[in-house]
Amino acid sequence: MRFEAGSELGKANLEVFSETLLSLARQDRNVLAVTSDSRGSGKLVPFAAGVPDQIVEVGIAEQNLVGISAGLASTGKIVYAVSPASFLTARALEQIKNDVCYSDQPVKLIGISAGVSYGALGSTHHSTHDLAALRAVNNIVIIVPADNFETAEAVKAAATMPHPVYIRFGKRPMYHLHGPDTEFEVGKSIIIREGTDVTFVATGETVYHALMASKAIEQKGLTCRVISMHTVKPLDAEAVLRAARDSRALITVEEHSVSGGLGEACAAVLAQAGLSLPFRIVGLPDEYTITGSQVEILNHYGISAQGLAETAGALLNS
Amino acid sequence: MTDDELRIKSIHYRKNLLKYIKKANAGHTGGSLSCVDILNVLYNRILNVSPETFADPGRDRYVQSKGHSVEALYVVLADKGFFPESELETLCRYRSDYVGHPTRKVNGVEQNTGALGHGLAFGVGVALSAKKDDADYKVYTLLGDGELAEGSNWESLLAAAHYGLDNLTAIIDRNNLQITGRTEDVCNIEPLAEKCKAFGWCVEIVDGHDIAAMTDVLRAIPFEAGTPNMVIANTTKGKGISFMENDCTWHHRVPDDEQYRQAQRELDALLEGIES
Asked: A122: distance to nearest CA of chain B, Å?
């Protein structure tokens, strides 16, 4: 049967992360998961049962999580520091900046339940700042995988990366977006759907919504390119510029604040290349998000098939 | 080397760190003078590390959590041959690798520090790795007493005790002063020994300028199997220079020409005292 992106529901990226990490850990005893009372929320209970000597628990102490991970990594351990994205990248930002990035200790920082995954638990638990914060930190690669394939590939790629990396994802089951022949390369975006009227440059779990929006738009006789920009830093600037030249409008989509994330990164690329076209940054506005589930919050701010189709329509008519 | 030979070294370290602080017109003078005897004992008697073995996974690790006292570290590393001392002529200069806080650009530096409350967690990670690998190297980290107000340290104290890291030693440079004034006036940390004991550490208190006493204490590590080691080293900020001692204004002050000459004269007099 021919593969169709977005038609088959897979697992939560979180679950794929956990399975991939366990598989890596079984092949190499130097692979460690470090957790801050987050083995349950990180789906690492099977990991802890399968390779009990390879999990390090530090308690609810994110600063220590990152500092200890840097120390472990300095001795050659392949360290995945796993904690909710919100706490990992805010509470421990100085440890990420100094102990990991500035000191160039190749820790793999794993931000779980990222964006607004925690839904109604509220803004303390949301990470709508993490991409902006880490984009401004030197020496770190930022990956936001869209589906199970991208997650598994990113987690595997991280194992051999000689410098720091941050990978963030959510906990809801995701639709498969890539066929069996897709190749994953850090820093190189993937075109999921081709078209010329509108390009969606999306990252993480929003790629699916961009894809669904493109299908809705196409019923009106327009075509869309959908790009999964899984690596937010370094940004695949070439893909953004190509899209700007090939399309009539460009929309970026992210489960993150509109400040400092993927959208502003793309805007900087376009402006500095002297390219101008109808352009929108879709993300979370500068406010504490309304109460609701992840889906309700995303819908509320137009990060949905319908919302994105409307944005595209308005942009093309502007 | 005899105790006297190390005492002479300490004076030369002081003379040198003042020389390079003066030359750079920058530096953390008081704290470097308070911790340099601790570094002397570590690098000349305790640490199993040298320029030749610095890449060896089995080397002992020293992490300077109180990164601001980098001038003390640099002069000791230079003396141990990690780099030519002449490179310190570039300290804090445009494009120099010798930054005003430790970085791994400098041979012999394990970890970039300077923001406070980071070295101990890093040390916990290294010590934990040694335990996992059944390796017998040891990890030492030096913290300032003012630095203990950083909450991250107390997370690390918990974790080290939880994992029974008897291969980890935290040395507190207890000079009683921080940039604003007396540590006890800024944010009281006493009773420090009792706090650390309550956190599950084995604590020894020592005169941080007494070469022989520090040697005895550091050679007794681990103090107790399965328990991390805390050494509270009582020191004097600005030690060795009469007008700098116990004066927090010397936290990162550079001596003027006359002060510099007087400081060197005082150190020369100390040197003559030992050598005669």
From this structure: 26
List the structure tokens of B192. 């420090």
**Residue A156 confidence (pLDDT) above 70:** yes
SS3 A191: strand
Query: From CA A198, how far away is CA A224, in angstroms rounded?
Result: 5
> Is B151 in CB contact (< 8 Å) with chain A?
yes
| Nearest residue to A132 (alpha-carbon basis) of A60, A33, A203, A207 | A203
Cα–Cα distances (Å) from A207 to A228, A304, B12, in that order, read: 6, 10, 64
The yes-or-no verdict on residue A230 having pLDDT over 70 is: yes
Select from B40, B38, B217, B243 the least CA-distant residue to B143: B38
Instruction: Answer whether B152 touches A (CB < 8 Å).
Output: yes
Q: Over 80: is that where the pLDDT of A1 sits? A: no
Contact A68 B104 (CB under 8 A): no
| Residues A139, A92: Cα–Cα separation, whole Å | 16
Is A163 an 8 Å CB contact of chain B?
A: no
- Name the phi and psi angles at B25, rounded to 5: 60, 35
Mean pLDDT, residues B224-235:
98
A295 and A208 Cβ atoms separated by less than 8 Å:
no
**C-alpha count within 13 angstroms, C-beta hemisphere, residue A142:** 25
Evaluate if residue A42 carries a pLDDT over 90.
no
Report the pLDDT value the prediction gives residue B238, as an integer from 0 to 100: 97
Is A92 in contact with A127 (CB distance < 8 Å)? no
Q: Are strands B202-207 and A231-233 parallel, antiparallel or unpaired?
A: unpaired
**Tokens encoding B252:** 């990162």
Q: What is the DSSP letter of B62?
A: E
Task: Please indicate whether, in this complex, the C-beta atoms of A70 and B125 are within 8 angstroms of each other.
Answer: yes
Contacts of B112 in chain A (CB under 8 A): 98-99, 102-103
- pTM over 0.90? The answer is yes
Instruction: Return d(Cα B110, Cα B139) in angstroms, integer.
Output: 11
The Cα–Cα gap between A147 and A144 comes to 9
Supply the pLDDT for residue A195: 96
Q: Report whether pLDDT(B275) > 90.
A: no
> Which candidate, B141, B97, B106, B137, places its Cα nearest to that of B123?
B141
Distance from CA of A71 to the nearest CA of B (A): 4
CA distance B268 to B270: 5
- DSSP class per residue in B154-178: HHHHHHHHHTT-TTEEEEEEE-SB-
Q: Residue type for A122, please?
A: G
Express as a percent the part of chain B with pLDDT over 90: 99
Tens digit of each residue's pLDDT (9 = 90 or more) over A103-140:
999 999 999 999 999 999 999 999 999 999 999 999 99
Least Cα separation, residue A236 to chain B (angstroms): 30
What is the interface size between A and B, counted as CB pairs within 8 Å? 98
Q: Which two tokens stand for residue B133?
A: 């690998």
